[in-house]
Amino acid sequence: MVFPALQWPMTLALVAVTSYHGFRFLGPASARAGSGQAVRRRIAEGVHLLMGVAMTAMVWALGVPPAVWLVLFVPAGLWFAALTARRPAAPGARAVTGYFALASAAMVWMTGLPGGHAGPHGQHGAAPPAGWWPPLVSLALGGCLLLAAGWWAARGVRLTPAWPDRVPAGRPAAAGARAEGLCHATMGVVMGLMLLATV
């Protein structure tokens, strides 16, 4: 279960991240991006907006039917997986879309597969867990997300290469890339802790 002491910190973090992705989703598409790239970015922002809403609902065990999240995150995961399988348009793009596919799979796992997600008031989701493998899957997913959150945090403070948003030499890196990295790091930490709480 999510410890009650973590509910408000997690909620505040998710509200900040969800607001950021909501602004990006509703804002004008980048004029520099091609139409296909702009559509992909808008879809990705919409998925992250829904992830923030879904995780906030899980933190407070609001009892949203798991089928609602499955209908949203199964197609999202398949879409990100398809983007990952394509020839990447920029260095590091495959790693980024692969991470998004993993995060979508984690959302599916938390909301619809054995054990569902343990909220602060007990278990909700699918049937109670059976056997040794559901905790192992949750542990593996949670650990991967926490490790990836460290990479996103490093990217947010510019300790890693700025992929996939390379900029021409002599121009400053976009400030949005730094905020994006910190937002993905925050969401990864919250999701990873929620998964580890089900173990």
Task: Write up what this structure looks like.
With 199 residues, this protein is mainly α. 67% of the residues lie in helices and 3% in strands. The protein contains six helices and two strands. The protein has helices at residues 4-26, 35-59, 66-85, 93-112, 133-156, 175-196, and strands at 117-119, 122-124. It has a two-stranded antiparallel sheet with strand order 1-2. Helix 5 (133-156) packs antiparallel against helix 6. Residues 118-127 and 163-173 have low confidence and may be disordered.
Topology, pairings included?
Blueprint: H1 4-26, H2 35-59, H3 66-85, H4 93-112, E1 117-119, E2 122-124, H5 133-156, H6 175-196
Antiparallel strand pairs: 1-2
Helix pairs in contact: 1-2, 1-6, 2-3, 3-4, 4-5, 5-6
